[in-house]
Amino acid sequence: MLKKRFLFIFDFDNTIVNDNTDTYIWKLLPQGQKSLPSQFEKEKHWNKFMRKVLQFYYHNDISVQQIKSCLQEMELTQGFGELFDFIRTNKEQIECIIASDSNTYFIDSILDKQGFKDVIDKIYTNPVQIIDDMEISIFPYHKNDCESTCPRNMCKRTIIMDNYQLTNYEKVCYFGDGKNDYCPGTILRNEDIIFVRKGYGLEKLIQKKDLLCEKVYFESGIDCINRLKNLFL
Ligand SMILES: [Mg+2]
Ligand SMILES: [Zn+2]
Predict the structure, then answer these.
(1) 233 CA distance to ligand 1 centroid (A)?
(2) Pfam families from the xrefs (predicted)?
(3) Distance between CA atoms of 30 and 142, rounded to whole angstroms?
């Protein structure tokens, strides 16, 4: 691949899509239950929790296809269709990746539907195994000892540091909303930008402990385009 000027890193849940993929599928719970049976509440590790949720779905005959159809109803965050069109227009200068604590199946289902898989070079997320089109098992992406606000199965800072040399890029742009987007933010340089979704956990964390890079707070993908467009003149 030719050397690109920019590295764009996207969180997925509540950044690209306007909801959380893991909790969105609770819509499929039997008899329209709004929450999960109480035995699930004790599980503290989200990744293990989701594995149990999907086993529960399997035992209640909720198929993989139903899960996919449900996910494909999800809406993009406002302006993100336009943001990905903007990236596609400038793709020869931008390497574009996703780092997400969702999973490969959920993300692929949505990218297929939304039609911008062509813009994404690589996806770092929890792997899944699908058995007989009926059962999805989720596995942890890795195990880390990060001391920041990261879950044990996913430190996005570690993912970036293991796979990219930031000095190879003129500018790194990170787009996120959540607590687990703070740790990767700590490796961004003065010249980099973190795009922070307004009203979500990451914004609060940055107010407590500032980051070195430029901060752009967004409500819509259009806010991101407005900051980015003069970089591509
Ligand atoms: Mg998120
Ligand atoms: Zn971390």
Answers:
(1) 30
(2) Put_Phosphatase
(3) 32
